[in-house]
Amino acid sequence: MNKYFFTIFLMVGTVLIVNSCAQSEVENAFPALDFSQPVDLQDPGDNTNRLFVVEKAGIISVFQNSDDAKTKGTFLDIRERVNSGGSEEGLLGLAFHPHFQNSQYFYVDYTAANPRRTVISRFVVSSANPDSADPNSETVILEVSQPFSNHNGGQIAFGSDGYLYIALGDGGSGGDPDGNGQNRATLLGSILRIDVNTTSGGRNYAIPPDNPFAANTNGYREEIFAYGLRNPWRFSFDPVTKKLWAGDVGQNLYEEIDIIEKGRNYGWNIMEGFHCYNSAACDTAGLTLPVWEYGHNSSGGIAVTGGFVYRGTQLPELYGKYIYADYGSGRIWSLSYSSNDTVNTELLKTSLNISSFGTDRFNELYMCAFDGKIYRFKLAANGLKGKLQNKPAAYSLKQNYPNPFNPVTNIPFFLRTGTRVEIAVFNVKGSLIKMLTDKFWPAGEHILSWNGRNEYGIIQPSGIYFCRMQVGGITNENRRMLLLK
Question: Angle 137-157-114 (CA atoms, 0-180°, nearest 5)?
């Protein structure tokens, strides 16, 4: 066992856990609004500046994304169809079609009774009212039998490929008694990927031809994209890298964060996190390990809530980091991951039961909590309140040269010890212009350069820009630069 774990940590690389000494804060994003057990928040992608909150009992509410929003409407009410009796049952997921603005299609994931099952359905917005869906427009896309009331997954989302991804837990009880996690003949314990724009084989969907088990002759379910999951509670796509991140709830000891890739086996119930769940039968060949785990004893946690890689502009110190939480302890972390090192930073400990994260059309981040409120990180004048700290003396970002410059400037920095470094360029509004580096660097003097172009290669206008350096998730220094043409 010791040799096995040593091998794992070599594979992971440098692992750093950071406990922030200054606590950041959260605030009620919409003080006038209350929800009943919110479990999901979605933006429709139609530039209407609306947000939709899913309530466990079977209601979807809609409201304007404004701090002073006073009212919310009922977008969909299907409480009579939803079985929300169990603590993990209910209306659990919402996804708007990539072409929602034209199609007016959206999809939901809910649990139903008699027989107990997961239902994936499509609905259509009412032609008379864009803030109301037609409850009679339901088309059932897929149903999956559920042997127990827990471990239903529930997240659904469209990838950049246009396919619908669906999270399903192992069917419930404890320890996966039916062995669903490792059984590719069942849809349980998997992330599914289906084409809802086409029908095939008598189904209201089709199998994407590049699914890992498409057209197999082994009896494997062709809908499976990845498997070996216990209860993937919330997954999301990074809009920049397109990577699929998931939080998989553990059994008794460990919670894990996974990057989901096509055809991979994530180990349940052979593994729980990096550890053998059943040491008497622990064949780890062919398994994909998580990118991070945390233990129940070390964090007081009981159930991970998967989040998002932050790609907004209001919190530049969190840009590119995966933000997630624990439902039981109320802790919120940021995770920076690469093949060279992993840095997990505790941002704060709340008293909230955080059930889900969501983003608006600007990729700003929100948290759903079971006290009925929607939260966000609280901002100070210089960024995330309480998060910015004084720079360690061991790291230094020096002034760029030439300055002013056109078309290229050099940006030197110094590291007393090798570490992961993130250096990026922002405009005066705080919007990210160009990520110059986000990787492990050895100790010593280093020089980067910037050619005045953004991430898409577009030349930027003359003006003031800021270069920011982060080490260990902490903003260390900002340097003012002047681009002249």
Answer: 55
